[in-house]
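Objective 1b: paired records.
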Amino acid sequence: MLLEQDGLRLLTDPTLRPRMGHLTRRVDPVDPSHSEGLDAVLISHVHQDHLDLPSLWRLPSELPIVVPAGAARLARRARFENIRELAVGESTAIGPLSIEAVPAAHPGRRPPLGTRAEAVGYTIAGANRTYFAGDTDLFDEMAAVGSELDLALVPVAGWGPKIGSGHLNPETGAEALRLLRPRIAVPIHWGTFFPIYRRRHRLLVDPPHEFARHAATTAPEVDVRVLEPGESTEIDRR
């Protein structure tokens, strides 16, 4: 996701290349302009589909990068110079924005035996307050994360045919909205890449719409906006 907030541009968990291992991009390439004029990059955890070194090598090395505590070595491998490591509860300032690491229920080690760094989500607070979940399952502190949220970016799927523990699916993602209570929610982490089962097309396009249907019952007060890859939306200020 590219967030433009308070005049700043933040890129989250960027995967910018057309292929990553057995995954191939099923949508248009990322517009190069999305990587221009950035003010920071946020990395939620160290799994290869969220911290992709070849994608990060495309970005300016002087750009601030915010990573979970323990991930600085990987950020240095990505050639970044301004590295902000955050443990849960810690925060850093990017211009007028305050970025705080919050819990996530997701494995933290980079497979197979690589860097261990606790997975986190982030709240981005300025004129509005945004929650970027990264990868997570439901967790006990989720309701506390949801204080006065304007926008929640909620993962609802993955790149494989099954979603294991440590992930939200369309139904549990809707349950997360009941806890978070944002004004607006955008489902993320779906539909961008073809895994090896590329013929099972519905698994690539159905999850965000299933999420919206569940949310209409579980959290009807939340404005759910399904964005196709490449689309954008505007969030008004409170």
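Objective 1b, second protein:
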Amino acid sequence: MAAGTVLIGAEDLRILIEAIFRRSGLSPQHAATVADVLLWADLRGIDTHGATRVPRYVDLIERGDMNPAPVLSTRNAGAAAVLLEADRAPGPVAMVRGMDQAIHCARAGGIGLTIVRATTHTAALGYYTCRAAAHNMIGIAFCASQPNMIYHGARSPGVSTSPLSIAVPAGSGEPLVLDFGAGVVSVGRLMQARKLGQPIPPGWALDGAGQPTTDAARAAAPLPMAGPKGAGLALMVELVTSLLAANPLLAEALEGTAPGARHGQNAAAIAIDIARFVEPQAFAQQASRLVCDLKALPRADPAEEIRMPGERGARERRERLQAGIPLPQPVYRELRELANRLGVALP
């Protein structure tokens, strides 16, 4: 365990997060959902999208940007597609509903698509794609947000980091899970470095004046990964989520309109029923075969193993379930202060 961290058991952390959100106005069911999604990230070592997000979510609730008591509804439902009106719900609440609807459609028609309109921070997308993989389906999810990433060739934010996840059953008990954003680094990682007082590597971000910086406190937005490729991916995510949902985010923000000043996200959840194309066990066996072939390749560094998407996270989860979740002191301090303010007992 790194110096300056506090170990907390997974169940204790779940209880704490759930209690904070119940005290903030969420129903018991919705508070449990948010806690499950944030804990999933912490267990897998995705610390930028776990408990560290709790104060930010509470702030969004208190500002009126995140609705603690949303009324989720569907419209334009078809055999394979549905539009979910999220009513500014907490992202985990909307995305769980959205993926479950996509899975339902896929069972009937082989594929399901849910466009999630007007939600808030969606947290780690891998949680939702793994939800589909648990049903022997391929899960895909991506989301759009306000401009928080530099567009290639520009000096200020023009697109969002637009995270994307794909999860595929692999027959080993753990799915293959790809989960990444279009930025060189996530906004959450910049926030974490700022919170912990850590420098950032060159090439990660620009400051408010559009100049490169290694000072996390000055970092205004991350650069796109692979330059125009990352920027183009982010643009396309806005087109096939926000514009498809008739809820543009980037243009509103870039033009300085009132709607553009509010936090908000749109997203897509897709489920593909493997059984419509191939017997699921045969698919999983072929996935495992390919994994073995890749791991047998000559290693660039003999001391480093060849890992598959999601493998590190699955290993981290097993370790953290036994040893506890390490929270940096600043993160634990924020949780403690928030719990005290809301009258929630610390575990």
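The two ends are 20 Å apart (CA to CA). The chain has a mean pLDDT of 96.
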